[in-house]
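Sequence only, no structure available. Ideas?
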Amino acid sequence: MDKLDQTPDTRGDLSSGQVQDVASHEGPTGRARVNQPDAAPRARPPIRPDHELVVQNLSTSLISALREADRRVLIRQPLKLRAGDTARPDVCVLRGAKAANSKARRQHDAIELIVEVSSGALQYEFDQLARYALAAVPEVWIVDLQRHRLLVHQIPSGNSYAKRQLLVAPERITLLRVPNVELKVAWIFAERE
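Reply:
I predicted one. Tokens follow.
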């Protein structure tokens, strides 16, 4: 199992709307072109500086951890969930080198992980969770900034998830579809042990 006991690589400055090619780790490589949803059930709360920092830390950690895998990390890119439904999660991991730029209906099949970061009451994120389950997204993480915890939802079942975990530092999280990759929960919150 690849243990990530070193500080994540922070060389790249990733900002909203960028796609990171994990295999080459050479920087932004393109944008997903997907139609915006007609109406979102609830507006995304404003992004605060601590929210942005967590998105950056998590993205960098995932990119470093998935460097050897055939995965792509997207930051706030529109994603096609299923027919007529798109979302723009904080972070998304897609399987396959071409998945991030796919316009085809198969993009939803490539989604392995969606991460939503909450700096508020979690209502928006839980609204999104039902959409992700209905779209058969295999794993969703909700980062709760107020309580410094990670809510992990795996194995979609209807409009919810069959397996749920609550993790805090110093625990570690293993990706459902990439079991040899493990991340420290503390890294998400920029904590060092």
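The two ends are 20 Å apart (CA to CA).
Hope that gets you unstuck.
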